[in-house]
TrEMBL record:
Keywords: DNA-binding. Transmembrane segments: none annotated. This is DNA-binding protein. InterPro entries: Cro/C1-type_HTH, Lambda_DNA-bd_dom_sf. One of its GO terms (molecular function) is DNA binding. It comes from the Bacteria.
Length: 182
């Protein structure tokens, strides 16, 4: 890979970080590991071609163009967290992936109905992802960090909130959220 290709790939990964919270290669590898998939199966569930998935993972392409695919990614992230916490079995996960594969996206009600716990309340992870998504739709991660640095001397709690939810990993934001609920 020459310097120009490396620069293009680095730029694509930075855009992915600002749009999706992290580079898609890391996100997709985690889904593959957590859900016991291979790349071809993940591509099929998401409704992408295997070459397109590979291009997104490698940073040759930056953006997922189809909003329904983005919603499927979000649904798979939620499913992976439910498998990880034991609330969904491997067999149930296989059935849910078939449902996710068929989903057309576009409906907020569909997305939230798949991300609620047994009482019907949104999961902590879903609430955190919504906060992250909102912040990241307003500004890029670098701008959020700059704002947090500006606020830190006078408003350290707000600065921490911006850093954790605006530029941090979801797991860190979930821990922050849970530590402030009492």
């Amino acid at each position: 890979m020459d310097a120009a290709q490396q620069e293009t790939t680095a730029r694509a990964r930075e855009l992915q970080r600002s749009w999706y919270g992290e580079p898609l290669g890391a996100l997709f590898r985690r889904l593959i590991d957590d859900l016991g998939l291979n790349q071809a199966r993940l591509a099929a569930v998401l409704g992408l071609s295997a070459p397109m998935l590979s291009q997104l993972m490698s940073g040759q392409r930056a953006k997922i163009g189809n909003p329904a695919v983005v919603q499927r990614v979000q649904a798979l992230q939620e499913l992976a967290s439910q498998v990880a916490d034991g609330s969904v079995s491997a067999a149930e996960a296989t059935d849910r992936m078939a449902e996710i594969k068929k989903s057309q996206g576009g409906s907020v009600l569909t997305a939230t109905s798949q991300t609620t716990n047994s009482s019907g309340a949104p999961t902590v992870r879903r609430v955190v992802r919504e906060i992250q998504s909102l912040l990241r739709s307003v500004a890029a991660a670098g701008d959020i960090i700059d704002a947090a640095d500006s606020l830190a001397p006078t408003h350290p709690e707000l600065a921490e909130f911006l850093r954790v939810y605006g530029a941090g990993r979801t797991a860190e934001a979930v821990a922050h959220y849970e530590s402030h609920q009492s």
